[in-house]
Amino acid sequence: MSTLHDLSEIIKQRRSASAEKSYTKSLIEGGTQKCCKKLGEEATETIIAALSQDKAALKAETADLLYHLLVLLEERDIALKDVEMVLAERMGLSGHDEKASRST
Q: Is the CB of residue 58 less than 8 Å from the CB of residue 50?
């Protein structure tokens, strides 16, 4: 997981960069809507790659998806460690039990 943490830290640093020099900064400056639009595009491309059964494409699109997810989290000021804490809390629960606990 250190690669994701490293990437998350780089994204955080790019918040203070120039949008002319940093794609990440241009996404953050575009706000939540722009970040969500890019995340949705990458999710669709990931699905298409998975359905095409092209493993190389799926790996590449998954990397893009994770990057754009981390950018969205940064734009919304949510740390990766906070998401990891939610996942840790869910460990040991069945998926059905966890989902049912959210609806109450």
A: yes
Q: Per the confidence metrics, is the pTM higher than 0.85? A: yes
H-run or E-run covering 53? none
Region 60-65: mean pLDDT is 98
14's CB contacts (< 8 A; 6+ apart) are 22, 24, 25, 28
Alpha helices in the chain (DSSP H): 2-14, 23-29, 31-52, 55-75, 80-90, 95-102
pLDDT for residue 64? 98
Distance CA 55, CA 50 (A): 7
